[in-house]
């Protein structure tokens, strides 16, 4: 029997991993802005509204020295998460079905608090408790991650939500409402298709993003009782009232104005004297709809001008692709690199360029700074000099601050980047494959499997030789190579 007071019991959220909420990502940003964060070798992590554990289980499996606690109001989703703990025999994670309002001091304090997709989705008094909880449970160098829907970008979605809530008001049960909602979206799309006014364009744009969405997303994004976007300045004011301050965005590249024109950048500088104001005006300009904001304790003096020396502490993984250009001497490597979002970065220094080529060649492996410098020197045939580390550090930082294609890691992820004689996947990925088609790789990304991939994945416990697997599974060689490339194999 479904429980109408638990909409997530009626239709579970498609619980999955969120790379941007990875505590190591939060640690990197914290360190760049002047904190001394706890590394994942021994951290305490709390996830509020953890649903079925899709984000927290892979972290617990990958970092046995850390402790993880997940809470969620929905007993059905917590039961799913607990099934994962039992199947994987994890001893460093607990899940509890409870409201965030009931969390007491016995929980202790945390280095990282994650609340993905909760703030906008709960009523105002619960939001109040959520912020109070973060303030109460965050360690002195802790980081809280809260994602939420923002205005002005969410305005069209909020309008669509109002309409579809009205349309489905008489339906009984969430599954029926989802089916009525889909019919209404189709009706609206047809009704607006020949119009070119601002209203029709904005609703059509929103409708175009709905096509292909799964039922759980329609249910909890459009049909939930509460899903209220707010302006960034309102969120930050709320955080400050609870004794928290703005640290940064989990996708730090979104804090850069590099993609905006020179005159817009100048205008933003003139209007905004503080980083929070710059962020708010940036949202106005971009029409931002969603944020993944990081908060920390107010007494920490943040360093907004990042010291390039800090960069030397990290490992680096880069998916930036060198651009090939036709010149008078034919095709040649250019000074420019491009990321998957189409952003182009120019790197003129030979050593720094060699470093990016080196990283691209070994992607997704992360390389430590000293080693990267060494390898770049060999590749470029250029000896390292006194200024080399500074130039490389500045280049890496420049790329990282504008592009998601450059990753900094404090605790590098553990995976095996090739196919060994006895290929092995993590117990987590094998268990996920036994339950469905979505698995989490060692980089904390979601990977969708096809039928043959799923069948093969379930066998990868390291006991069967590559030769046997290739003899018994069609396309095993190609699939195993694919698994190695997407960080699904372990040593
Ligand atoms: C939109 S879903 C997001 C789930 C998950 N964090 C994700 O992004 O995949 C919101 C989650 O918050 C949970 N939730 C709502 N109110 C809560 C409360 N008062 N205490 C704890 N969890 C709550 C819901 O049960 C649901 O799982």
Structure explained in plain terms:
The chain is built from 19 helices and 15 strands. It has 491 residues and is of the alpha/beta class. It has four domains: 12-152 and 229-296, Rossmann fold; 155-222; 308-409, Enolase-like, domain 1 (2-Layer Sandwich), CATH 3.30.390; 427-485, no CATH class. The strands form four sheets. It has a seven-stranded mixed beta sheet. α13 (350-362) crosses α14, α13 (350-362) crosses α15 (388-402) and α16 crosses α17. It is globular. S-adenosylmethionine is lined by residues 8, 13, 15, 48-51, 71-74, 77, 99-101, 116-118, 121-122, 126, 220. S-adenosylmethionine binds next to β2.
First-to-last CA distance: 44 Å
CATH topology of the largest domain: Rossmann fold
Counted by DSSP, the helix tally is 19
CATH superfamily of the largest domain: Vaccinia Virus protein VP39
Radius of gyration: 24 Å
What is the beta-strand fraction?
15-25%
Bound molecules: S-adenosylmethionine
At the first level of CATH, the class of the largest domain is: Alpha Beta
Oligomer: single chain
Q: Tell me the overall shape.
A: globular
CATH architecture of the largest domain: 3-Layer(aba) Sandwich
Strands side by side in the biggest sheet? 3-2-1-4-5-7-6
Largest sheet: 7 strands, mixed
* Average pLDDT reading: 93
Spans of at least 5 consecutive residues whose pLDDT stays below 50 are: none
Give the helix proportion (percent range): 40-55%
Broad structural category: alpha/beta
- Beta strand count: 15
How many structural domains in the coordinates?
Answer: 4
């Amino acid at each position: 029997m479904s429980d109408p007071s638990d909409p997530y019991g009626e239709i579970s959220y498609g619980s999955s991993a969120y790379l941007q909420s990875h505590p190591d990502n939060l640690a990197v940003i914290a360190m760049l802005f002047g904190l001394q964060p706890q590394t994942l070798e021994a951290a305490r992590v709390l996830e509020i509204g953890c649903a079925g554990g899709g984000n927290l289980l892979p972290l617990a499996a990958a970092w046995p020295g850390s402790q993880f606690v997940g809470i969620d109001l929905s007993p059905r989703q917590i039961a799913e998460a607990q099934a994962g703990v039992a199947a994987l025999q994890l001893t460093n994670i607990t899940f509890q079905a409870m409201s965030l309002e009931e969390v007491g001091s016995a929980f202790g304090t945390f280095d990282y608090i994650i609340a993905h997709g909760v703030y906008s989705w709960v009523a105002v008094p619960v939001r109040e408790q959520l912020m109070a909880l973060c303030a109460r449970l965050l360690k002195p160098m802790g980081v809280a991650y809260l994602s939420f829907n923002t205005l002005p970008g969410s305005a069209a979605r909020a309008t669509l939500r109002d309409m579809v809530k009205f349309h489905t008001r008489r339906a009984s049960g969430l599954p029926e409402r989802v089916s009525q909602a889909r019919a209404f979206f189709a009706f609206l799309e047809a009704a607006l298709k020949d119009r070119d006014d601002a209203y029709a364009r904005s609703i059509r744009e929103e409708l175009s993003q709905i096509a292909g969405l799964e039922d759980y997303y329609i249910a909890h994004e459009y049909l939930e009782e509460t899903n209220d976007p707010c302006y960034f300045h309102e969120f930050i004011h709320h955080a400050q009232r609870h004794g928290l301050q703005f640290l940064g965005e989990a996708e730090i590249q979104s804090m850069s104005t590099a993609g905006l024109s020179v005159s817009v950048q100048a205008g933003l500088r003139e209007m905004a004297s503080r980083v929070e104001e710059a962020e708010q005006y940036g949202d106005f300009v971009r029409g931002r709809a969603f944020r993944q904001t990081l908060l920390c304790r107010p007494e920490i003096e943040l360093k907004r001008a990042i010291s390039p020396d800090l960069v030397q502490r990290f490992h680096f993984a880069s998916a930036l692709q060198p651009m090939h250009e036709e010149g008078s001497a034919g095709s040649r490597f250019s000074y420019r690199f491009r990321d998957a979002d189409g952003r182009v970065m120019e790197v003129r220094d030979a050593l720094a360029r060699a470093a990016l080529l080196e990283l691209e060649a070994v992607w997704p492996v992360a390389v430590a700074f000293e080693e990267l410098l060494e390898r770049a020197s060999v590749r470029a045939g250029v000896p390292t000099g006194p200024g080399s580390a500074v130039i490389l550090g500045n280049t890496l930082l420049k790329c990282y601050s504008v592009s998601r294609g450059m990753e900094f890691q404090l605790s590098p992820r553990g995976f095996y980047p090739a196919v060994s004689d006895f290929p092995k996947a993590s117990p987590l990925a094998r268990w996920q494959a036994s339950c469905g088609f979505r698995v989490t790789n060692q980089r904390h990304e979601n990977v969708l499997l096809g039928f043959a991939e799923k069948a093969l994945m379930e066998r990868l416990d390291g006991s069967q030789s590559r030769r046997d697997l290739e003899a018994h599974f069609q396309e095993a060689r190609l699939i195993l190579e694919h698994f190695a490339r997407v960080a699904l194999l372990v040593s």
